[in-house]
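Rather than argue in generalities, we have chosen a single entry, letters for residues, whole numbers for local backbone shapes, without further comment.
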Amino acid sequence: LSKVEEEIGTLRQVLAAKERHCGELKRKLGLTPLDGLKQNLSKSWHDVQVSNAYVKTSEKLGEWNDKVTQSDFYKKTQETLSQAGQKTSAALSNVGSVISRKLGDMSSYSIRHSISMPAMRNSATFKSFEDRVGTIKSRVVGSRENSTDGLHSPSGAGDKPPQDNAPF
């Protein structure tokens, strides 16, 4: 018994040395533990695919697939869904065209045209904005006209009155 146990110990030492040597060879060859895992998974998947249970299940599922795809119900459903898809695609295409056209139309409007639109001009927000701009304008222009302290405008216009190009 002691001689067998001694041989087992020796074999363990030899096995450990061989495993270290194998690891060094793998490292030198550029093989990583991930490569080993991939190889194990590939082999396991191959074993599953050639197993009796997998082969029989695949055959049965193939038969069921053939029966289902050949049924009238499946064919009618497939046709209906195909038509619905075509109609939906056409409708979405039309919606996209309309949106593109509307956005194109909107981009051709100028700001002055938008401001002159009655619905916008009559809104409370626009009237409030217009009143504030008018008040600010009258303060700036009024103080410039009434100024007697000899200050000149920053533009160097001198005694020329400022041009009024504002839309208000």
Notes: Residues 1-50 form one domain. Confidence is low (pLDDT under 50) at residues 149-159. The first helix runs from residue 2 to 29.
